[in-house]
Amino acid sequence: MSTSDQGDSVSVIPGTKSAREALFDRLAERHAQVKAAQLSRRTHVQMQPGTEVCEASKLTKQNDFLSNFLQTKTDILADLDRAADQTRTDSLSTSDLTKILDETLVRIENLQKRLNESSLYLTPFDCEQATLELKNLQTQFQSKREELLPTRKFKFTKNRVQKTTTPAVSEVTPTSEITEHSGHIPSSLTKFDERFSLTNFEHDCQLVIPKPGCTDTIGVENSVYLAQLNRCTVHVRDVCGNLIARGLQKCRVYIYPVAGSVWLENCHQCDFVLASRQLRIHQTTDCRLGLHMASRPIIENSTGLQVAPYRLQYAALQSDLTRAGLSAEVNLWREVEDFSHPNKRLTTGSPNWSILPETEWNSLKANE
Known about the structure:
- The protein is of the alpha/beta class.
- It has 2 domains: 4-148, no CATH class; 169-364, Pectate Lyase C-like, CATH 2.160.20.70.
- 33% of the residues lie in helices and 26% in strands.
- The chain contains 5 helices and 13 strands.
- The chain has helices spanning 17-46, 53-88, 94-118, 124-148, 317-323, and strands at residues 169-174, 189-193, 197-209, 219-236, 240-249, 252-255, 258-265, 271-282, 288-293, 298-300, 305-309, 337-338, 353-355.
- The strands form 2 sheets. It has a 5-stranded parallel barrel with strand order 4-5-7-8-6. It has a two-stranded antiparallel ribbon with strand order 1-2.
- α1 runs antiparallel to α2 (53-88).
- The protein starts with 16 loop residues before the first helix and ends in a 13-residue tail after the last strand.
- Pfam families: TBCC, TBCC_N.
- Its main location: cytoplasm.
- Belongs to the TBCC family.
- It comes from Fasciola hepatica (Liver fluke).
């Protein structure tokens, strides 16, 4: 993995000892530069007899922040490398790895908050350097997370069940793996399991998956497909692997935790209440979303979206979050990235989404 786009001159290849040493050498060099800058600033303050005490305090804050910032980054990278080593030797379970990655994400988000708070007294140069370092850390974390805990591809396949009868399947559903560069679902066709699919319903239908009479659970190995629904209420009452919703109008959709990705496309005037690892929203307007997210939601070519925390409550919620590999403590519901906005990496400033007023959050609860 190359980090040259982050202002670094060292190409880092995960998993190699020399690359790791080069990375820590570079961080140590940065740390030394910060220390030198600290000394220079203190000397400058001492040489100014009329310098105010508040100015000296400001410089102290700058120096302390930069030093702690780089040290925190170094610690996070070291912890990720340690987790990777333990994973390769099978000494770390998937649940423990998920917990470590979720905790690391919280540490990175806290680092972002500290940078935002410190921007009031940091110099423009220091603020820019810290921003580049943080972006580099986020890139390395995402790469390491995908390496250690890859998500399933967003596709539908016929479920193999040991029964004398085979569920009917259709061959009309396009598929996709949600990536930053995918602007639409590819036109290639694949199969989806009709047991866990709902299409072409309208006019106040109350729909449930698994369907009434179906004795099979969905499970993380299967996906859910919703299409061409109008004025329907949908309850997905089991953990699933992935979910696609296309062409929904004025629907209310309540979804138990999703272990992989959710894709919403061409949906209008709907409510979605969902918990998932990834979320991509495309060509969707005037929808409200109650979210529990392990990563930042991504919207594209969409307007009038309002987000709020996940409001679905039921007895087995905590265990279902665990089954889906999600942490109850980590929720990036409000960290929306708008890929149609010039500053797509910023989680504020886009006119295409907003936070739903807190007085309306409970209106996203399911009425059962």
